[in-house]
Design brief:
The complex is a heterodimer of chains A (286) and B (397). Chain A is mostly helical. Chain A contains 14 helices and 2 strands, in the order αααααββααααααααα. In chain A, β1 and β2 form a beta hairpin. In chain A, α2 packs parallel to α6, α4 runs antiparallel to α9 (182-204) and α6 (136-158) runs antiparallel to α9 (182-204). In chain A, 51% of the residues are buried. Chain B is of the alpha/beta class. In chain B, the strands form 3 sheets. In chain B, strands 7, 8, 9, 10, 11, 12, 13 and 14 form an 8-stranded mixed sheet that branches. Chain B is globular, with a radius of gyration of 23 Å. Chain B starts with a helix and ends with a strand. The chains are: A mainly alpha (286), B alpha/beta (397). Chains A and B meet through α1, β2, α6, α10 and α12 of A and α7, α8 and α9 of B.
């Protein structure tokens, strides 16, 4: 069980980083960004393509890929901020579903559906506890998820930039009237979350199955994790990601349960939604 | 309104008459005894997993035959239809090419679901199918389908035989990715290996998912069960994920006994750490051996037509060649009836690209290709190499 749980931790770290990004997006720019991992996937694929066809060294190609992921996300943010500024969260989120599907199809068209030769940035085991190996990727993703959550919290609470962002998310109209540049700020949030998710996917993609669909669909377990924090709390999003990853790993160790492994995020989502609505009266909840 | 109704009625009548005419002209058996011979295939040309090479290769063979004057002066009209990986589309495609186009046979099909969906329809229509690459169990257990390839089940027996008898490995485990009803067929393949060698798997996990993102927990579980070698029936991306998960765990002395499904140049390029080696019994003579005389003719035709050099194009090419050879021997009219009869009565055809001569015959099942050519992918080489100088065969009972 412990072995399985530790094995799932790398995935957990990845879910946690994506969950933090999702939470930031939801809090600050009122979007549940379904294309969060798809932009990361696309950045990675471009990086691999650059390293194959232009002979770019892995690190340089990866950097270009991460920058592209950020830009792509910022572009999407600009589109949403320009034309859907007043739209409700449902409409804004629906746009990202379209982008998710677009990016999956585009990567099939551009890069085909054959596996890509991803070169690992990190490779091999870091250390072992009681004979259970913890890989380098695990250490880095878990550390990243905690650092990113702490960093974002610090920025939001301590800096004036963070203050403006919070003002924008709490009272968008008032903030804009006070002269806070709403559009620039939200595009910046989109860009930064795009950078972060491409970064973490670049680290993890070479160490796991990396076809376009499975990378883009990482958004499902990440949403389950973000839901634990109600798309508001970063600490719970990180905890949710790590616990979900570990639970998936542990469940895979038990033969009778391992079929349930890939349904786990969906079960968590349904469970949390039901729990969060438990006090609502039927008609009011709708 | 009445005017519109009248127009619709006239249009409908015209369409019906046209359809009737079309039916009449084609019911003479694939365009009569002088028109083109219609040959069809049902393929995964779009969807999540695509295999376009088999039918493309078959088409190249037929095009070359047409350019050389056709068969008994008749051209071959080859129709490769798309099943989109969707059962409804697979059924519709078969009905279109068999029912409407009145094909004489199906040749070079390559799909994940087609046999399962259409085998009863083929039996009902008394049409035979030489699949290029058969995958699902029905491809090997139906009276009307006989694929050109070995198939994943015999391939699994072969890979296990190679691991235990040639590499002398013990503690072999199986991680199976089960789609649909394939588990009994894989189980039978493993049982066949046990019957031949008297050896048993150390451990088997048939819950490994297709298209999983992270296989670490399955790998960790197999390692702690004491496995030294693992046989898997993976698709390429999954296998890459599994090998990477093992590498991340520092498990570098595991031997992978895989199937032809991972035999591609892309896969070799994507694998940096192959543990103690990836071994595959190639279902056709290894195409990566570029200097081989066995693959020369196929290679030239594929290169000329810009078709990727893969096992799939080998399967499609062979299916079309077998078919051509059989129908060239038909005296009299070439129609579905005579083609079916000729295939059922054909004598075995040998080809240097396969270890077992091909025969369709009258059997209720067609699972008779039992030879693979062992190949190997070692850590750090990014290249498939021959691991033997002859075919590995499943011993006859």
């Amino acid at each position: 069980m412990l072995q399985g749980a530790l094995a799932g931790l790398a995935a957990g770290g990845l879910f946690a980083v994506l969950a933090v990004c999702l939470t930031l997006m939801s809090r600050l720019v009122r979007v549940v960004n379904f294309s969060q991992s798809a932009t990361g996937m696309f950045g990675c694929y471009v990086a691999v393509w650059l390293s194959i066809y232009f002979g770019l060294p892995t690190w340089a190609a990866t950097l270009v890929g991460i920058a592209l992921g950020g830009l792509l996300s910022a572009l999407l943010g600009w589109i949403v901020a320009t034309w859907l500024a007043e739209a409700d969260i449902g409409t804004r989120s629906a746009v990202t579903v379209a982008v998710l599907l677009l990016l999956i199809s585009l990567s099939f068209i551009l890069f085909g559906n054959k596996p890509q030769p991803f070169h690992p940035i990190l490779d091999g085991p870091a250390f072992s506890v009681n004979g259970v190996v913890v890989s380098q990727v695990t250490v880095v993703t878990v550390a990243l998820s905690v650092l990113i959550a702490l960093g974002c919290r610090a920025v939001l609470v301590k800096s004036s930039f963070g203050l403006e962002l919070r003002a924008l998310s709490e009272r968008p109209t008032t903030a804009e009237l006070m002269g806070i540049p709403a559009k620039k700020l939200s595009v910046a949030v989109w860009g930064v979350t795009g950078l972060l998710s491409t970064l973490v996917i670049s680290i993890v993609a070479p160490s796991q199955s990396n076809d376009a669909t499975s990378l883009a669909m990482l958004v499902v377990p990440a949403s389950a994790a973000a839901l634990l924090g109600g798309f508001r709390r970063l600490d719970l999003a990180v905890a949710g990601g790590l616990v979900l990853g570990m639970a998936q790993g542990a469940v895979a160790q038990v033969d009778s349960l391992s079929v349930a492994r890939y349904f786990l995020p969906f079960l968590v989502i349904v469970g949390l939604l039901l729990w969060s609505q438990r006090k609502e009266v039927w008609d009011v909840a709708r | 309104m009445r005017k519109i109704m009248r127009r619709v009625a006239v249009a409908a009548a015209v369409t019906l008459v046209a359809a009737g005419c079309a039916n009449n002209s084609s019911s003479g058996g694939s365009g009569g005894s002088s028109g083109p011979i219609v040959v069809g295939s049902v393929n995964a040309l779009s969807g999540a997993a695509t295999f376009p090479e088999a039918s493309a290769a078959a088409k190249a063979v037929f095009d070359a035959a047409n350019a050389a004057g056709g068969v008994n002066g008749r051209q071959i009209s080859y129709k490769a239809l798309d099943d989109k990986g969707d059962p409804a589309a697979a059924a519709a495609a078969a009905r279109e090419v068999v029912g409407a186009d009145n094909a004489v046979a199906l040749v070079g099909s390559s799909s994940l679901i087609e046999c399962e969906i259409n085998n009863k329809y083929y039996a009902q229509q008394k049409i035979l199918s030489i699949s290029g690459i058969g995958v699902d169990p029905a491809c090997f257990s139906s009276p009307n389908i006989a694929p050109a390839n070995v198939g994943p089940y015999h391939d699994m027996t072969l890979t296990l035989l190679y691991g235990s008898e040639v590499l002398k490995l013990d503690n072999i485990c199986a991680l199976l990715e089960i789609a649909g009803n394939t588990l009994p067929s894989y189980q039978a393949a493993i049982d066949e290996w046990t019957a031949i060698t008297g050896k048993k798997l150390t451990y088997m996990d048939a819950t490994v998912p297709y298209g999983g993102s992270d296989y670490t927990s399955y790998i960790v579980k197999a390692r702690s069960a004491g496995c030294k070698a693992i046989t898997v029936n993976p698709v390429e991306p999954d296998s890459i994920g599994q090998l990477k998960a093992a590498a991340a765990q520092g498990w570098n002395d595991v031997t992978w006994l895989l199937l032809t499904s991972v035999y591609s140049e892309n896969y070799a390029k994507a694998i940096a750490n192959a543990g103690a080696g990836v071994y595959v019994p190639a279902e056709f003579y290894p195409f990566t051996d570029a200097a081989s005389t066995q693959t020369k003719e196929w290679r030239e035709l594929m290169t000329k037509n810009n078709i990727p050099l893969t096992s799939f194009s080998q399967g499609g090419y062979l299916a079309a060649k077998y078919f051509l050879q059989v129908i060239k021997g038909i005296s009299g009219d070439i129609n579905r009836e005579s083609v079916t009869k000729a295939l059922q009565e054909m004598s075995p055809i040998s080809d240097p690209m396969v270890g077992t001569p091909y025969v369709f015959g009258k059997g209720q099942t067609h699972h008779d290709n039992t030879a693979g050519w062992p190949i190997k992918l070692a850590t750090g080489t990014n290249k498939w190499e021959l691991a033997a100088d002859d075919w590995l065969r499943i011993p006859k009972k």
